[in-house]
Amino acid sequence: MVAISAVGGYIPRLRLDRQAVVTANGWFNPALRAFGRSERAICNWDEDPITMAVDAARQCLGDRQRDDIAAVYFASTSAPFDDRQNAGIISEVLRLKNVATLDIGASMRAGTSALMAAAAMVGSGHRPVLVIAAERRRTAPASSLELTSGDGAAALLLSPQEGIARLIGQRSHAVDFLDHYRGHGREFDAVWEERWIRDEGYLKIVPGVVAELLSATGVAASEVAHLCLPCTLPRVPEMLADRLGVPRSQLRDNLFAGCGDTGASHPLVLLADALERAKPGERILVVGFGQGCDALLFEATEALLDARPTAIASALARGKRETNYQRYLAFNDLVPIEKGMRADVDKFTPLSTLYRKRDMLFGLVGGRCRICGTMQFPKSRICVSPNCNAVNSQDDQSFADFPAKVLSWSADYLTYTPDPPAHYGMVQFEPGGRLMADFTDVDVGKVDVGMPMRMVFRIKERDPQRGFVRYFWKAAPNAGSAASQA
Amino acid sequence: MATGIRDKVAILGMGCSKFGERWDCEAEDLIVEAYEEALADAGIETKQIEAAWFATAIEEQHVGKSGVPLAVALRLPYIPVTRVENYCASGSEAFRGATYAVASGACDIALALGCEKLKDTGYGGLPQRSRGALNSMYWANVSAPGSFAQLAAAYRAKNGVAAQDLKRAMAHISVKSHHNGSRNPKAHLRNQISMEQVLGAAMVAEPLGLFDCCGVSDGAACAIVTTPQIAKAMGKSDVISVKALQLAVSNGVEAQHNSWDGSYFATTRIAAKRAYAEAGINRPREELSLLEVHDCFSVTELVTMEDLHISPEGGAPREVMDGFYDADGKIPCQIDGGLKCFGHPIGASGLRMIYEIYLQMLGRAGARQRQEPPVRGLVHNLGGFPHQNVCSIAIIGAHGA
């Protein structure tokens, strides 16, 4: 048996007002007006597929023990590194030791294909596999993709025993059908005509795969309670549902409003969303489309009632509207702006230091003194407590999941940040210890002493000279806390 | 049993360049400008100097490393020259080196010189620079104003002070320092300002506005020290001597241990107590005549008034507003304009503060001269961040007082 045992999802807090994009670009491409409604999710300047994947995976794993996880599969077509395994970075951050890792990309099917490969591995290896998909697609300004895309991530833990949804079957056909492609070294996608994509692509390729899957599993199309079709072409989901024989009422919202199409991660985002509503016994059909089609069929179980996921709904609810299109362009390096000389400092990262301190920098691992119990970050040879100062007394202690509160803070307009003012301050962890930390996802005028925070893994700095991304942890308002002002 | 530094070392001469945007000067020009004044004041020749300490903090922006730039600029005759750096308290380090050398008997006459040429960065404020390989990977994106501004947030929370009341007390500090600086011909900023200007200025780092921040300047300052006996033998009638020299350096407790509340300087409180003990001062509020403190930001000066054990805890805003620290108040603070207006060429600042106390003691401070003759002055020179810093305290006074 292969089942989904836990789910996580992440949709970044910033939501770009599509009308702002249309207002800026409609003079050039009036056809964009067709998409000028609601908002799409956009990454903050310090978010990317790695950071979103980490957040989705942290939600998925919660406080579950992680020792039994055999592998981490990461799917994305927009991962920050071409040659440095992104799944490996994520595993370090999640403190998953001795796992197999795999990056899967190069198609909008990457998310569903990762899920299928993971299912096969769980079936043969009898140990859980974590599948994460995350996407921050780079789209050309004034393109329709800019309006239909969204940034986001989803994470699913597949296990060899009963979970919240059982995998009933899966099918895949590869077809070199190019609705779009992105050549090596190219910034943006090249796209083909929508009517052809609809008629020769979605409406011909998907039904064949789905029919095979339903036939092989003995499930009638009418028995599909949740149809997850990640497609933003107008009317195509409805036409496809008709073609598949699934009642239109069973089509899951494609989350165009508030999120947008999260690319390779979107089938998984829609699946996570479906699991937030499915009733035990209901069938969920998930489709991945891109140079072919993947289809997976799940059945929700009774366990869902006790472990109802909420990631997508709560992420959708915490959006912050962004009406400044120029800020979106700046965050995504789509327009050159004068950053000032303070941005010029060399961001060189010594790789040997990074490796030596990877527990500290990726896992936020500090120390806990086994003599006096004092928690401290970073770890050091001599305990910081003035009443202890024991030598070599510290055990590893991750601070990543410790709730924290603001002790002191400022909003700094002098230092360089892509999104001034830079908020930072001393946060104090409830179990002990503190860190002078950058803040993220905060609003001007809303930060104060005592504010509850949680630690999140984010981009600290980019090194444009060497194409390196430096990650570390920041403090963000703790949305789960009642006193939060986020 | 250690007996401390009190009255073991005298200041033979001092010099200070004009501080400011010295666009036409190299560090060498500033060094020589300060040195010529000190040498004339001391009444000696270069060949009589037996050892020198050179303070620079951001040397990569001007002279580069080592003691060589000082030795070359002054053509020192192959004597020991040591370059020191300890954040913004570097000038005090140079003074400590020279003073200890004389006190130890290793030499009769020593030089301390600090210099910084900061205005070649292309922008306002201190230059952006690396914090060290590992620090750069996890430290928050702090600037100097953003780290010191946090004192205000923590101070408000701890003492229940309304944001606007604290902001007004901070503004009074800046207005006062500009008033004092306007009477100082060597000061970088000589304009007087109003409360309204301060309160309405652009925000730099919440709640610090433009006028809550000190000037970033070019400048140099120096001291020539000897023993009191030699100073007298050389004909000095009013001998000014060192009463205390203390340095307290953060060991990570404030940054890592939850015992510090973020509203004060742990180092200053400790260094001040040690300095008072070394100088034989029991009641600093009664026994100190003048204060020169490290007012890099208005809020730093405010909390320092409490950390020096002069204002009661939580009482500084009221005493500041009452004019206790004004030029005509009970204990003037920054009678020369302070870092705020005299300016802040980092390596020179600690020595500049000593220079002011020295001038005031000798009645040579011109238009800003304190009328009531000062007996003892305290110099507080701080470097780093509130949560991780070095704090130097020197007490200077009439020999034997």
Series of H and E elements of chain B: EHEHEHEHHHHEEEHEHHHEHHHHEE
> From the coordinates shown, what is the CATH architecture of the largest domain in chain A?
3-Layer(aba) Sandwich
Main beta-sheet annotation of chain A: 9 strands, mixed
Query: What's the CATH topology label of the largest domain in chain B?
Result: Peroxisomal Thiolase, Chain A, domain 1
Integer tally of domains of chain A: 2
Percentage of residues assigned to helices of chain A: 10-25%
Number of alpha- plus pi-helical segments of chain A: 12
Distance between the termini of chain B: 23 Å
Low-confidence stretches of chain A: 482-486
Which second-level CATH architecture of the largest domain in chain B applies? 3-Layer(aba) Sandwich
Helix fraction of chain B by DSSP (H/I, runs of at least 4) = 25-40%
Protein chain pair with the most extensive contact, residues per chain = A-B, 51 and 46 residues
Placed side by side, the strands forming the largest sheet of chain B appear as 3-2-4-7-1-8-11-10-9
Mean pLDDT of chain A: 96
The beta-strand count of chain B equals: 11
List the keywords.
heterodimer, A: 486 residues, alpha+beta, Peroxisomal Thiolase, Chain A, domain 1, OB fold (Dihydrolipoamide Acetyltransferase, E2P), nine-stranded mixed beta sheet, five-stranded antiparallel beta sheet, 22 strands, globular, disordered C terminus, B: 401 residues, alpha/beta, 2 domains, two-stranded antiparallel ribbon, 15 helices
What's the structural blueprint in terms of helices and strands?
The complex is a heterodimer of chains A (486) and B (401).
Chain A lengths: L2 E8 L3 E4 H8 L13 E4 L6 H13 L9 E5 L10 H8 L6 E5 L5 H16 L3 E7 L8 H5 L3 E8 L5 E10 L5 E2 L8 E2 L2 H24 L6 E5 L7 H9 L21 H10 L7 E7 L2 E9 L10 H7 L2 E3 L2 H7 L19 H6 L1 H6 L1 E5 L5 E2 L17 E5 L5 E9 L9 E8 L4 E5 L13 E12 L4 E10 L9
Parallel strand pairs in A: 2-14, 4-5, 4-6, 11-12
Antiparallel strand pairs in A: 1-7, 1-8, 2-3, 6-7, 8-13, 9-10, 12-13, 15-16, 15-17, 18-19, 18-21, 19-20, 21-22
Helix pairs in contact in A: 2-3, 6-7
Chain B lengths: L9 E7 L10 H16 L8 E5 L12 H7 L6 E4 L5 H15 L5 E7 L18 H4 L5 H16 L3 H19 L13 H6 L2 E3 L2 E2 L9 E8 L1 H6 L6 E10 L3 H4 L9 H14 L4 H4 L2 E3 L5 H10 L8 H6 L16 H4 L4 H16 L14 E10 L2 E11 L3
Parallel strand pairs in B: 2-3, 2-4, 9-10
Antiparallel strand pairs in B: 1-7, 1-8, 4-7, 5-6, 8-11, 10-11
